[in-house]
Amino acid sequence: MTLCFQPILLLMPVVSVVSVPVPSNTKTVFREAQAGGNLTLDVGTAMGTVVHFQSTNPASEERVICKREGSNSSCLPEFDDRLSLHDACFELRNVKLSDSGVYTFRDYDTDDIISIYNISVSDLKKSTMTEKNIAPARVNMVPWCWLLVLLMVRTSSTHGISGRDYAEAVNGERNCEFLSRRKKSVKSCAIERNWGFSLEELFGLALKFFREMDGKAFHPTYEEKLRLVALHKQVSLGPCNPAACPETGFFDVLGNDRRKEWMRLGSMAKEDAMEDFVKLLNSCCTLFAPYVTSHKIEKEDQERRRREEEERLRLEQEEEERRLREEEERKAREEQEKREREEEEQRRKEEERSQMELHKQQIMAALNAQTAVHFQQYAAQQCPDNPEQQHLLIQQLQERHYQQYIQQACQQQQKQGEGLMMSPASESLSVYSPSDMSGHPTSQSNNASQHQEAELDQPLVNSGAGDVSMVISSPSMWTRPQIGDFKEKMRGDVDSVITVGRGEVLTIRVPTHENGSYLFWEFATDDHDVGFGLYFEWADSLDQLVSAKDRDTLDKTTEEGAAQNKDEREEESQEIKNVQVEEVVPVLRRDSHTEVYAGSHRYPGHGVYLLKFDNSYSLWRSKVVYYRVYYTH
Fold it and tell me: What start-end ranges are recorded for coiled-coil regions in this protein (predicted)?
């Protein structure tokens, strides 16, 4: 019996797992480690952590081997150079057999258990030697019956597991897969932190360095080269499959050695093979680390340039977006300002139009108040027994009277402007127009856009050579289309038809009547226009001139000669020119052959009206003028 059980004991694993009591509510994770290698555990948190360790020796007690608070960590002296705790990662380097035991990770502040790991450390060389040298010799001594019994027992135990045990086994397998992936992730992070490249990038650099520098920068041994080639095949092709690989010749020593080395790797994972390749190459050649460092610097420089380029492009894009946004805002602001200006201009025009309309109404009211009686008398004469025609005629006369008044005011203002330019010392000149019924008449100043109010009797006073003051009011002028009827009526009176010869100016003198206050005139021509103007000659200045001349004549003697009489005639003609004559209506060409021109003027005083019919511009034809002049109260 002793011989039967002895082989079974020898076939059991060399590394034993020691169970240490742990809290029932925390799941313990079992891990294995190889002596001389590195051990990496996931802590689960990057905050304050306290690591408790209890060895597999029953006599040993649990102790704190490392503490971490924030970025500061402290470890026992025996673990100080081998243990590091950073970024939720626990790393133990150069693992020893005495490191087997339970590692409990607790929160630094609350002392709550975060995770528990049960670690078993084995000596791979010792176990391999035992399996090769001892186990085969004793296995041969085991009877085949005992092997059959063991196989049956294992089969029955496998088939007899419960559903709960099976579920726990499946969950344990899933946890193992998760921990395996977590281990690979932690290992990849550690490699990238140490070398500056991911595991795949680092393996690519190592393979490139090995191909380019083998036999030049370094000379690995035969065994090292075999190991490197085998690891490369393990990474690129996977585990060795003798059935799929071609046969090697008996004398192909290199091929056989490479095949054996590849098969010796077994089912090593691709990541582990890449890591071993990098570690072996780094141990063989001291130039590999500077080579990787140079590529790391180049990579960092490229990354820096890439970030700078991205930053530059981002800033340019932001600047372009900001410029476009400002351009859109500027355009919107300009459009808004343009709309506001247009609205303001529209409001200003509306206000000006309203003011002009109001001013027009005021002027027309003043003019109509002045000429209402005269227009009614005239309309009654022209259209007797027809009130509608009289009303229509009065409206036409009032509108034409207003237009002529505005035209004459503009002409007088233009003359005043010319007078101001010729005489800068004069400050202002005013032309006064008829007032309204309320006693607030309107006037025009030298500024065409400004109108002021004045009283009806406010005159335009001009000082002449004498002391006589002349008061002239604005005339009222209008036209009417009944030219045929007018000429028919005038043909019956011989004195109402005159002929103005070619190149001549005919003047008709009409003195003021003592019973009258207004002068009315009407005229028309046959086929062509004629010039017309109205002037007023003051009787007072003429009387003064005649009396002064008589006094001078009485003082003179009759013994003077002809030369002296000639001088007296020249002086007399010069004095006659000084007679005060005021322009009421300037001489302008009138289309009197198409319409009847009419007008009225209030007596400024005693004197003579001069009606001038000007044909001086026509050198080849005479003009026939039909006119009528009368006065009213």
Answer: none
CATH code of domain 472-555+567-633: 2.60.120.680
Window from 207-221, 384-398, 417-431, 582-596 with minimum mean pLDDT: 417-431
3-state secondary structure 410-461: HHHHHHHHHHHHHCCCCCCCCEECCCCCCCCCEEECCCCCCEEECCCCCCEE
Give the rounded distance of the alpha carbon of 178 from its chain centre. Answer: 54
Q: Within a 10 A sphere around the Cβ of 327, how many other Cβ atoms?
A: 10
Helix (H) or strand (E) holding 52: strand 49-55
Q: Give SS3 for 103.
A: strand
CB 441 within 8 A of CB 448: no
Q: What is the 3-state secondary structure (H, E, C) of 300-355?
A: HHHHHHHHHHHHHHHHHHHHHHHHHHHHHHHHHHHHHHHHHHHHHHHHHHHHHHHH
Give the Å distances, CA to CA, from 436 to 50, 369, 511.
110, 6, 29
8-33 tens-digit pLDDT: 333 333 333 333 344 445 667 888 88
CATH no. of 196-286: 1.20.80.10
How many Å separate Cα 532 from the centre of its chain? Answer: 67
The label of the residue with tokens 């240490």 reads 20
pLDDT for res 614: 95
- Please tell me the CATH superfamily of domain 2-160, with its number: Immunoglobulins (2.60.40.10)
Q: What is the DSSP letter of 629?
A: E
Can you name the residues that pair with 190 across neighbouring β-strands?
none
**Alpha carbons 485 and 496: distance in angstroms, whole number:** 14
Q: What would the pLDDT profile of 219-268 be if each residue is shown by its tens digit?
A: 889 899 889 999 998 998 888 887 777 777 777 888 888 888 888 888 88
| Residue 408 CB partners (closer than 8 Å, separation 6+) | 474, 475, 477, 585
Please give the Cα distance from 584 to 110 (Å, whole number): 117
Q: Which two tokens stand for residue 190?
A: 């550690």
Mean pLDDT, the chain, rounded, equals 75
Q: How far lies 563's CA from each of 152, 559, 566, 571, 575, in Å?
A: 180, 12, 5, 13, 19
Q: Where are the domains of the chain?
A: 2-160, 196-286, 472-555+567-633
Q: What's the sign of the alpha-carbon dihedral 133, 136, 137, 142? A: positive
